[in-house]
Amino acid sequence: MTISVNQLEEARRAHADGDGAIALGAPLYADVGGDMGMSFEFFPPKTERMETQLWDAVRALEPLGPRFVSVTYGAGGSTRERTHATVARIQRETSLPAAAHLTCVEATKAEIDQVAEEYWAAGVRHIVALRGDPPQQGTRYAGHPGGYENAAALVAGLKRLHPFEVSVAAYPECHPDSADHHADIDNLKAKLDAGATRAITQFFHEPETFFRYRDRVAAAGVDAEIVPGIMPVTNFASVVRMSAMCGTDVPAWMARLFDGLEERPEARQLVAATLAAELCRKLYAGGVRQFHFYTLNRAELAYAICHLLGARAKPVAQVAAA
How much is the pTM? Predict the structure, then answer.
């Protein structure tokens, strides 16, 4: 179908007064303005080389002034010490508010509470509270005897200890262990009712996926902040595997877009940045103002996406004062 210049102008005028005026009314490509916020997620390093890469990424993204940065936690607490050391160092040595992931897997309530107390003592005030995945891939989740049975119970336990800010997970395409969308949203409501501040979604690939989920959540009476999680496609085959594990649909057009780029990492990065930025622009047009980026400890791709969206670096002194 061919769209005429007049039709484009009519579309721009039709959206001139809405939230998407900048994103939808741009002549070709323009950023979304100055009211976009972001947060970044990292994983703890396993080697000295990976630690260098992580800290290069943290320092590169720090001038963008994210709302917070989070550090993941391996299944069964397998990265507990490295996660704690990374979070504590971010809190101690940078201007960035650090959030620590914490899960229920293979730990008693007393053990989890002790970890939370150590975070509080280190100045960390934000926890990303998750049920967690089974330590053995392909097995069903089972609560630890004497542990928190699920994320809602973990949130309640954290709030009993200290007035933590708590983020939790949300699943636009339904968690694989949920019976259906209704049960999944009931679980989200339980986490928010227990004291969570906001929910951050599992990654998804099309804006309509998020909008449909947001509508379902609103219809269920949930008015908490739902932040879309954005996963740049650094490796298409890996994203396909991860999507299959968490029940995320991979549209056919994505396979066509990345076809032939397996041996061209630089070209793949350019495509990935453009695709993620366009996803965010469409989400922005639908009223989204905060984005959570799964960085995979790679700064340049996340930086490029945020730059395309209009974020600009500031001196770190200004970031700390903001």
Answer: 0.87
